[in-house]
Amino acid sequence: MSLKEQIKSDMKTAMKAGEKERLSVIRMLLAAIQSREIEERGELSDQDVLAVVEKLVKQRKDSARQFADAGRADREAAELSEAELLQGYLPAQLSAAEIAALVDEVVTATGASGMQDMGKVMGAIKAKAQGRADMGALSALVKARLSA
């Protein structure tokens, strides 16, 4: 079963169970996937669906941070709750040790020696860690490793 089919199945389950918040989040996710399919003019692969989910999780976390700065704890909690529901569709996150090992492995495999190789390293890492790690944190780690 593809990830998109799983999401549709979860929507039906949430509908039958009367889980309004979960249903709302899943509908928003399916709308984002459909929008991306219209842009791409075709069905999305599971990797593409993961990218959509990642983007939505990042948006929710950014919004939560902004609401926290504005003193809106109620909205912050709602955004974090949505992000948590969406993260259920992402694969298990890599640990800090696994991320460090992955960065070392890719830097060695690509023969990267400085900041000029950042794009090459990030391209290889993105393929291996898609949906399993925060790309912003990974980028900072790669930067630190290549500038040392």
Topology at a glance:
Blueprint: H1 3-17, H2 20-40, H3 46-69, H4 73-87, H5 96-110, H6 118-129, H7 135-147
Helix pairs in contact: 1-2, 2-3, 3-4, 5-6, 5-7, 6-7
- What do we call the CATH homologous superfamily of the largest domain? Uncharacterised protein YqeY/AIM41, N-terminal domain
| Gap from first CA to last CA | 44 Å
Portion in strands? under 5%
Write the CATH fold name of the largest domain: Hypothetical Protein Yqey, Chain: A, domain1
* Unreliably modeled segments: none
Tell me the radius of gyration.
Answer: 18 Å
- Mean pLDDT figure: 90
User: What general form does the structure show?
Assistant: globular
* Structure classification: mainly alpha
The run of helices and strands is: HHHHHHH
The CATH architecture category of the largest domain equals Orthogonal Bundle
Helical stretch tally: 7
**Name of the CATH first level of the largest domain:** Mainly Alpha
Whole-number count of domains: 2
Main beta sheet, described? none
Please tally the β strands and state the result: 0
Structure, described:
The radius of gyration is 18 Å and the shape is globular. The N and C termini lie far apart (44 Å). It has 7 helices and no strands. Helix 1 runs antiparallel to helix 2 and helix 2 packs across helix 3. The chain has 2 domains: 85 residues, Hypothetical Protein Yqey, Chain: A, domain1 (Orthogonal Bundle), CATH 1.10.1510.10; 52 residues, Arc Repressor Mutant, subunit A (Orthogonal Bundle), CATH 1.10.10. The chain has 148 residues and is mainly alpha-helical.
